[in-house]
């Protein structure tokens, strides 16, 4: 009994014993606290960091080849024009069913711009297809008759040699065979004509679809669904003659009228500096394409074509422009490599060195400032020639703030539209 009692005592649960320590719980609490602390520090850094510095900027422009100083020998005014511009119309007269273009939309060559009502064209095509089917059926019928006539003529040829039939019967069979051969040739030609008519009818259906003749931008939308359009003017102003106007923006150039007394100063391939009336602070490099070999007796002027050396969406047809025809100084021996033109206010002195700040990684008007040490050339009006440190097309900060540091975030002000953002 004593042994049994001792065994029962060993099986009892001691409720006064302390619970085992829970080390995992304290470890988890510590990790969570560390994560919260890190998140708080990250939020403090993100919210407390300084915003981008507001700056003005402008694009550096390459100087002419040879690095010669360019002087204006003649100033003139003109307009931006497009060498490739087309008012697109349908080849046939018809009612517009759908117009698929809007002003400002870019279209590719062959893209559908509008469709006309195809009911008449579809009916003509179906009729031509039926005529072709009938012509081909006629060919099959004549071919069957011709096979029978050739067999009959061959049989009578053997019989006439044996003098079993008359020569007249044989001649009649030969004549019938030859007539059927002629009918077959006629039927085949009729089938070819019907096939040509079907192709023409299919072209008629295709003519109800108006396509862009080349890639460009739509500058005018001239028709609406339900209107009647025609390639020829019907008079009275009730019939449209076009669907829309497309301009190839890659063909833009400048046309200016130069007085006869000054045309001798202009030469082909002469460098030109163009300034749009809409953007008076933006100097666009250009050059003379050709001098049109005829004069306007009423205005006593000669037309000059000028090519734009820079392409930009801001340049649109019919813009007014002022141009300066430039003359290069004669090259000198040991001439330096040409640099870029940078506004003088973009160049500042830091620690005894001439520097400029270039905006890198520009996106949505925000980028990072990069400090560049400059090798300067000649002053050119309000600009300065930079031989090294800044490249063509790079965006430089105008009047950099004293506290602007290398790598600082900057935001280009909206009025600095000509600060390259490509």
From TrEMBL:
Domain CusB-like beta-barrel: from-to ranges: 254-326
Keywords: Coiled coil, Membrane, Transmembrane, Transmembrane helix
A GO CC term assigned to this protein in UniProt: efflux pump complex
PANTHER family the record matches: HLYD FAMILY SECRETION PROTEIN, MULTIDRUG RESISTANCE PROTEIN MDTA
Molecular functions per Gene Ontology: efflux transmembrane transporter activity
Family: Belongs to the membrane fusion protein (MFP) (TC 8.A.1) family.
Highest taxon, organism lineage: Bacteria
UniProt xrefs under Pfam families: Beta-barrel_RND_2, BSH_RND
Residue intervals passing through the bilayer: 25-47, 59-82
Coiled-coil intervals: 132-197
Multidrug resistance protein MdtA-like barrel-sandwich hybrid domain location: 84-230
Source species of the chain: Cognatiluteimonas weifangensis
Protein name: Efflux RND transporter periplasmic adaptor subunit
InterPro entries with a match to the protein in the record: Beta-barrel_RND_2 (IPR058792), MdtA-like_BSH (IPR058625), RND_pump_MFP (IPR006143)
